[in-house]
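Continuing the batch. This is chain 6 of the set; chains 1 through 5 are on the previous pages. Same settings as before, nothing changed between runs. Recording input and output for traceability.
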Amino acid sequence: MPGLLASVHALLGAQARPTPIQALSLKHLFKRKLDAPANPNTDNAWLQALLAAETGSGKSMAYLLPMLQDLKLAELQDASGAAQRAKTHGLMGPRALVLAPTHELSRQLSGFAKGLLHNIKLRVLCVSNKNLPARESKSVTAAQMAKLADAFVEGDDAAGPEMRKQLGEVDVAVGTPAKILEMVKGRNWDYVEPPEEEWPVDDRGHKVAPRQRHLGRPSMRLERVEWVVVDEADVLFDADFEQQTKTLLTAISEARGHPIDDHPATHRPSPETPAPLNYPYHLLLSTATIPSALAWYLDTHHPALTRLASPRLHHLPATLQTEYAAWTGGNRQADVEHRLRRVWHEDALHGSARRSKVLVFCNKNTRAQDLGRYLTEKGIATVALTSTSDARLHGSNHHLDGFLRPFGRGAAGKDGAAGKDGAAAAPPPPSEEQAESQDKAGWGDVDKHPHVLVTTSLLSRGLDFAPDIKHVFIVDEPRNMADFLHRAGRSGRAGEKGKVVVFGKTKGRGSSRTKEMRKRVGALAA
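Output for chain 6:
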């Protein structure tokens, strides 16, 4: 579609070349839709595909382009589209859903999609406008992400006044499964009152009944949905997230008049005795890893799924260098501070007035918060962001300003495509004069402007960080190599050079774990 192509060129440049996963999308996903009937009524008319590729390889554009083109073609071919929108009874009636595990990722994906639509005029809305306060947790895993993927509260309305203005006028809705389910079913739809023995006790020893919760008003209908994208599918089909994801996928099928039985009574499904789920809509899954649980689920319930995988799946980006840093045996926070200052010393040696930004991953909220406080006390302006941070309540990604990749020409948003070796184009670095003026203005002054972001796995999934982030520090051993791939993959994105620094013990008790991890990391870099 010329208008969509013009938007891609405006975003990435006219010389943009597809990455391997994008080339596979162009070959398989666009052709499938051109051959499909305008109003398919059979199971095999709907596309099911998996896009699997390493971090920073352009998966977002690989799934957005075929979806957006098809939505626009359908709109042009269907003169009754406006009438259909009018039949949503005052509720939002999107034609496509893009699901993500966190509000931060939902917002970035929404912004990236909007950047592709200046010429074809589709309507995209991010429904992750605000977060509820979350309880303190020791670390952020898929379980914590699932709890955090709740919607904001605006009376009994899951949409809120600003979103209400756009109801019925949305082509693509982007958000977490929990948020979208809340909009479909009403706030508190899944609330279960705890039994009396679990009620809290007041100062007098009397049990206190929980506050009564009312079912809120629905604000979204699903019968018009023809495309569903599950981004970060390895998370959204994780044991902690899968119930929400599957409930939503089933609800869409039911709304479209094609109920799905995902619990067959005749036998326990498995890859050997599959129970295919033929959803009445196009389903695209995107992931940087295929853990065994996801592979089992796909083999069992989507055996005919088209699988598109890049050659470097389950490998680190080729432009990412790995370095190992040994704990000195003293203050580990001081070790991190020392390595940070070394990064900026190396910047100065290379004649750069602009100081690199560094992303630091910890396993626990308390560890991230403590390290953030320590670095700030040592004169290093630091942002510490965890699941409980107040900054996440503001309903935007401004708390990540200066760290996320900006939108606009030459800035591919969340992994686009172009540049050398088919990688995404990055904004050009500042000239020496610009860098010098920026340094004088404080841009390179690490004690005035944050150059360090300390976080947990909360921000390791999908987010596209700015090219300024050349270094990722991993100060706690990841749960598994998939977790390592996602954390390390926040740098070295889109063909840019990057370095991941892995801290660990090299002597004495516990050093064997570090040696084992080095072997496994080495295999990822091969």
